[in-house]
């Protein structure tokens, strides 16, 4: 069973510096199973139930490293400092931005795209999801500026569509159409602004874009824009692909 010094654990979770954690312990503000820690250099077993048993100022401990969550990204929020606007991390508790290892998004959604976004501090999980060999699909709801040409579905499915500036054709893309201006597309790769560039390549323009599924994980109807939910089971991401 893995164990860690209390001050190091809490510092890694963003509760403060080790000196600040020591002050919390001396003030009896950290308890385990109701008993206060007297010294912050004591070691604590990193059991699955620790966040429920270890309290800081009477509140349950934040999730341990290995955190994965799904977030309903709203429009106007960015995944990268390269775009203007608030970052998705501003939607999470302030302390979480100080966690070590740091939280990262699994792939990105641009500023004008909403929907399902995965966030984790688990590097192995991140690479597992984005690795092309694992073929984790992503499904998007697309609203278009102009009615779709009937030939577009075949072009996307052909595996021959070439995006501007690239030398390798896209993998086949599944598409269904529910109205002249609305389509559902499912990708097996994640090139830069792929959905927008695909429709531009066939003479159309994406007016609105929303991702509602990654692998077998759907964005819940009751998870509103800006809200997040901790995932206790990541396996659905790798099913239904």
Structure description:
The chain is α+β, with helices and mostly antiparallel strands and 241 residues long. It folds into 2 domains: 3-60, Structural Genomics Hypothetical 15.5 Kd Protein In mrcA-pckA Intergenic Region, Chain A (Roll); 68-238, Pseudouridine synthase (2-Layer Sandwich). It has 6 helices and 15 strands. Strands 7, 8, 9, 10, 11, 12, 13, 14 and 15 form a 9-stranded mixed sheet that branches. Strands 3-2-5-6 form a 4-stranded antiparallel sheet. It has a two-stranded antiparallel sheet with strand order 1-4. Strand 11 and strand 12 form a beta hairpin. Helix 1 (6-12) packs across helix 2 (18-26). It is elongated, with a radius of gyration of 22 Å. The two termini are 34 Å apart. The mean pLDDT is 95.
List the helices and strands and how they pair.
Layout: E1 3-5, H1 6-12, H2 18-26, E2 30-32, E3 35-36, E4 43-45, H3 50-53, E5 54-56, E6 59-60, E7 68-73, E8 104-105, E9 113-120, H4 123-130, E10 138-144, H5 152-157, E11 174-179, E12 182-187, H6 194-201, E13 206-214, E14 217-218, E15 228-230
Parallel strand pairs: 9-13
Antiparallel strand pairs: 1-4, 2-3, 2-5, 5-6, 7-9, 7-15, 8-9, 10-12, 10-13, 11-12, 13-14
Helix pairs in contact: 1-2
